[in-house]
Design brief:
heterodimer, A: about 325 residues, alpha/beta, Aldehyde Dehydrogenase, Chain A, domain 1, five-stranded parallel sheet, three-stranded antiparallel sheet, 12 strands, globular, B: about 300 residues, TIM Barrel, eight-stranded parallel sheet, 11 helices, 8 strands, about 45% helix, about 10% strand
């Protein structure tokens, strides 16, 4: 709806209002002009630290679909928004990684539950963003299943990827994966819901917190997904979702010294080069998911969790008891 | 020896000006909307760093903790050349000697809280002994607390006399008077306590101990700055200001500088007349300085613990 159209509607609304006064029926208010009712449009805001602020920059853009229909006014986030999000994400690390793996699992499962309950809204948004009904339904179902998949992995990946290592000294030596910390993610441009869920879920399943830049051209599901997160017992700051242009924000996503890892899901080789260079300042872990088809089996694996884990190896001195024959 | 009579007779403190709360809050919020360009920001940050009273006032303080803090006061961040030291270290009286020794001739001052900090619930003679002890240990500045209970009971003369007595016990050390605005309740009372402190001989007035919420806020600091301004116009004597507690971000600290500049003028923009009582502010300032230099947002991992 253009601004002109809105103005027109408003004008007509006013005129009709004068002619027909409100009539009270038994059921309550009955408005003769109800067919001309102004739709209440949703304000798509960003998600930082469990809050839904507007972008600090005050800027916005309006993505359109293939038919040229304007999707919404969407926040054009700035580097300041990103910086605020990093502060929140950093603050959430100890709390989130300190929760029991089982509890993280419960919360991821809860996210799937909430997404299931709002299926219709996501399907509607996906169709608005040029999807067909069948494809949209499939994408939402897959996204829900993917959350369940990673909910299951929360309390299992650690023992699977841990190891007791053979060493030549009298030490008990073992390695365990631990979350790397704050992860910045440039989400896939296509698969605006499934891609987003597929990159966020393994990161938080492993105990990290993240700042995600949703698809630039198809941002609706990203923002609505934030509402799902907000009602899923997920602590504020664990997932922060921004909307805006990757061309503007990617360098900040990689440059920030308080970010421990970056995930990039597009193919642009220039950007990849830049990411490799900039990540060197604090030796960020970088991961490129540019060849993955999120709609297939290859889009889910415990190895995605391991992409944002660090291996901690502990040397624990043990007494060498002669004749006991023990040792690892 | 007769005690020198004050040259200006103290006013009737029951009749200090009333403060328009809405107006003060409006005015204070205006200071946060000034645009500060990069070059000014850089200088502003240096000034902020130079005005910090790096503080540790915990029951678990040890000699080692104080020494570490003193080192940080002299060497805030060695990767950055040309940055100033902080203004002072603020500790409990028992830690003054350790701090004094650790700071040596660096120019960083030692401030000590005294007078049964933070409650101030002790007899006058103990408060005076506490103060004298801190000064004898080598404190350059003394941060005292007023008796809020007596103040609320309307015993303004008691509060006045106590401050005057502590001032006398301070000798050459400068006296900062903590009003603990979080326990005073209204701006009117903050103004009244400020006036009492200044007339009784305070060199500085300070908002809070840092142990009570709310601590320093911009509106309450504005009320105190205006009290300082009015006192200056009346007597020609400059009084320092120290907001303490709750100022942990550089941006907020810069807002405070704007406020000082616009209420009192540039004469107050030195650490002789304005201080920040803070512990975590220093690291945030340093991180902003490095950000200005490198263009990269910084991580606390790369700065010393304070």
């Amino acid at each position: 709806m253009t601004i002109c159209e809105i103005c027109e509607l408003k004008n007509n609304y006013g005129k009709n209002d004068k002619k027909s006064s409100l009539k009270v029926s038994e059921n309550g208010l009955e408005n003769k002009t109800s067919s001309k009712r102004l739709e209440v449009l949703k304000t798509y805001k960003i998600y930082i630290g469990g809050q839904f602020p507007r972008t600090e920059s005050g800027r916005y853009y309006f993505p359109t679909n293939a038919a040229g229909k304007k999707l919404a006014n969407v926040c054009l986030s700035s580097r300041k928004d990103f910086r605020d999000a990093v502060v929140k994400a950093r603050g959430a690390v100890s709390g989130w990684s300190g929760r029991s793996a089982f509890n993280r699992s419960q919360i991821l499962y809860r996210m799937a539950e909430m997404l299931e309950g709002r299926k219709a809204q996501f399907i509607e948004e996906l169709i608005l963003q040029d999807g067909t009904k069948a494809k949209a339904e499939k994408e939402v179902n897959l996204a829900i299943d993917r959350l369940i998949y990673y909910a299951g992995w929360c309390d299992k990946f650690q023992q699977l990827f841990s190891a007791v290592n053979p060493v030549a000294t009298s030490h008990f030596n073992f390695s365990v994966p631990e979350p790397t910390g704050v992860v910045s993610i440039i989400a896939p441009q296509g698969d605006s819901l499934l891609g987003l869920v597929s990159v966020i879920a393994p990161v938080i399943a492993g105990g990290n917190t993240c700042i995600v830049l949703a698809s630039e051209t198809k941002p609706l599901c990203g923002v609505t997904f934030a509402e799902v997160l907000n009602s899923s017992d997920l602590p504020g700051g664990v997932v922060n979702i921004l909307t805006g242009k990757p061309s503007e924000l990617t360098s900040w996503f990689v440059d920030h010294m308080d970010v421990n890892a970056t995930i990039y899901c597009e193919k642009d080789s220039e950007t990849k080069k830049m990411i490799r260079e900039k990540s060197a300042t604090n030796l960020k872990r970088i991961t490129f998911y540019d060849k993955i088809n999120w709609t297939t089996e290859e889009g889910q694996s415990p190895y995605f969790i391991m992409d944002t884990q660090e291996i901690k190896t502990t040397w624990h001195p043990v007494e060498n008891i002669a004749g006991a024959g023990g040792g690892y | 020896m007769a005690i020198a009579k004050p040259t200006i007779m103290p006013p009737d403190f029951a009749r200090t000006p009333h403060i328009d709360q809405v107006g003060v809050e409006e005015r204070a919020s205006r200071f946060t909307k000034r645009s500060i360009k990069n070059e000014s920001k850089e200088n502003g940050l240096k000034l902020v760093l130079n005005m910090i009273d790096l503080t540790t006032l915990e029951g678990i303080d040890t000699d080692g903790k104080v020494k570490q803090l003193c080192y940080k006061a002299i060497h805030p961040h060695d990767a950055l050349p040309d940055i100033p030291t902080v203004a002072a270290i603020c500790v409990y009286p028992t830690m003054v000697k350790v701090a004094k020794k650790a700071l040596g001739d660096s120019g960083v001052k030692v401030a000590s809280v005294a007078t049964a900090f933070p409650s101030g619930q002790a007899p006058k003679d103990i408060k005076i002994r506490d103060t004298k002890y801190a000064v004898n240990e080598g404190a350059d500045e003394v941060d005292m607390v007023i008796s809020r209970g007596k103040f609320h009971a309307g015993e303004y003369n008691f509060v006045f006399d106590e401050i005057a007595a502590i001032k006398e016990a301070c000798g050459n050390a400068r006296l900062k008077v903590i009003l603990e605005t979080g326990e005073l309740g209204t701006f009117d009372k903050v103004r009244r306590a400020s006036d009492i402190a200044m007339h009784a001989g305070a060199d500085f007035i300070k908002t809070s101990t840092g142990k009570i919420q709310p601590a320093a806020t911009m509106p309450v600091t504005l009320v105190m700055l205006e009290a300082i301004r009015d006192f200056y116009y009346k007597t020609g004597k400059m009084i320092g200001m120290k907001p303490a507690g709750g100022i942990s971000k550089s941006k907020l600290a810069l807002h405070y500088l704007v406020m000082v500049k616009e209420v009192l003028g540039e004469d107050w923009l030195t650490n002789e007349w304005f201080r920040f009582g803070a512990s975590s502010l220093a690291n945030d300032v340093l991180m902003q300085m490095v950000k200005l230099k490198t263009g990269q947002y910084q991580s606390a991992n790369y700065f010393s613990v304070d």
